[in-house]
Amino acid sequence: MSAHFVSLLDELRRRSLRMASAVEDMLDEACEAVLRTDHALAQRVIARDAEIDAEEVEVESEVIRLITLFQPMASDMRLLCTALKVNSDLERIADCAVNIAERARHLDTRSGVHQNSDLRHIAAIVRRVLRNAVQVYSAEDAQAARQVLGEDDAIDAFYGQFIRKLAADAAQSPEWMAAHLDILSIAKNLERVADHATNIAEDVIFLRTGQIVRHQAR
Amino acid sequence: MDCKIEALGLNLYYGGFHALKDVSIAIRPRAITSIIGPSGCGKSTLLRCFNRMNELIHGVRVSGQVRIDGTNIYDPATDLTRLRRRVGLVFQRPNPFPLSIFDNVAYGLRVHGVTDRARLADAVESGLRATWLWDEVKDRLHAPALGLSPEQQQRLCLSRLVAVEPEVLLMDEPCSALDPVATARIEELMRKLAARYTIVIVTHNMQQAARVSSEAAFMLLGELVEFGPTARMFENPQDRRTEEYVSGRYG
Question: What was the ipTM of the complex prediction?
C-alpha cells in the first residue's frame, strides 16, 4: 500500500495548497476591490465562490475516502485531519472574501469612508497573516506557525479600537450610515479571516507535533 | 505504577542469534497490552519469556529477569508447572486436544490432580461460560472438540486456560487463523476477560492492537523501541522507527 498511499497523500496535499492559494488571491482581490472601488474585481471574487465550494466538497470526500480505504496511522492520520480542518477554514475565508466583495459593490463611495486609513491598515495585516498561515501550511513549519498565532491578538486589539473610532465617525456623519455599516461589515469579515488563518496555523502545529493548542492562553 | 509483569534487562539468544536485546518493560495488571513489530522482531520470543516457554527450544540462553508480582520467574527455584498454570498461552492456530469438549477443558485440572467429578463439572462449566461457549456446546460436551469451528476452538483453548484459574493470558496472534467476524468475537471476549486477567497479545494486525489494547509495545530487531499508551503509539509515536512501521513505510 505504501508508495501508492503516499502518492495519493501528496496529491491531496497539493490540491489543498492550490485551494489555499486561490483563497488567498480572493481575499487580496476583495480588499483591492474595496480600496480601489473596483466593481468588476468585486464581481470576479463573487464568481469564484462556487469553484471554492465545489473544491471544498471534493477535498473532503477525498479525505474520507483515504481514511476509509487506508486506515492511516500517526502522521498520515494527522495530515488527513489537518487537511479536513484547513479545508473548512479555507472555504469560510472564501465566504468572507465574498462578503467583502459584496460590500465593495454596495459601498457608496461619495462618503469617502472607504479611504479610512485604519481599514487599509487592518486589511494589510490580515492579508499578511493569511499569507503567512498558508506559507506555514505549505512548509508544515510548526515553529513559524507559532509566530502566526501571536499576530491574531494584535489584530483583535486593533479591531476593538477600530470599532470605537468607527462609532464616533458614524455619529459625526449619520447621513453616511449605510456606508459606515458597510465598512463595519468589511472590518468584521477581515477579523474573521484572521481567526481562520490562526486556526490553520494551529492545525499546522497539530500536524507536526500532535499537540492541540487551541483555546490555550498565549 | 501498578505492574503485573516486569522484564528487566532481558536478553535471549537462540544459539549465536541475539533475539532479545536488553528488553525492559512493565505490564499493567487487568489490562490488554499488545506487542507489535515486523516478523522476526522478537515479539513472540518476548511473549514466551513470560511463562518460560522458550526453554522448550534447544540452545536457548536467557539473561536478565522477568518478575511476576515482583518475583523473578527465572529464579532456579521456580516451579514451572505452577508458573504455566498462572501464566497461560494461546497460540495462533487453535490447538484443542483430540478429546471431547469436556475433557479439553478439564485437562488442566486433571494434570493438577483434581479428580472430583462435581468439581470438574463446575470448572468446565465456568470455563466455557467465561468464553461464551457454554450455551453453544452444553448439549454436546462429550462430542469431539475438533468438530467445533476454528473460532469456537480458539475460545475452547481459552476456556481450557481459564479453567485452571490463571492470572495472565498470553496470546500469540490468536486471530490470525480467523475470519473478521470470528476475530471481532475474540476481541470482544478479550475485553471481557481483561476485567479479571492480565492479557498480553502479540499481533501482526495493527488495527487489532489499536482496537483492543490500552498499551502497546513496538519491537524491531530484538529491541523494544517504544512502549506506551496505544493511542499515542498510533496517533503520535515518539520514535521515527515506530512512525515508519505504523504508517506502513517500514522496509
Answer: 0.73
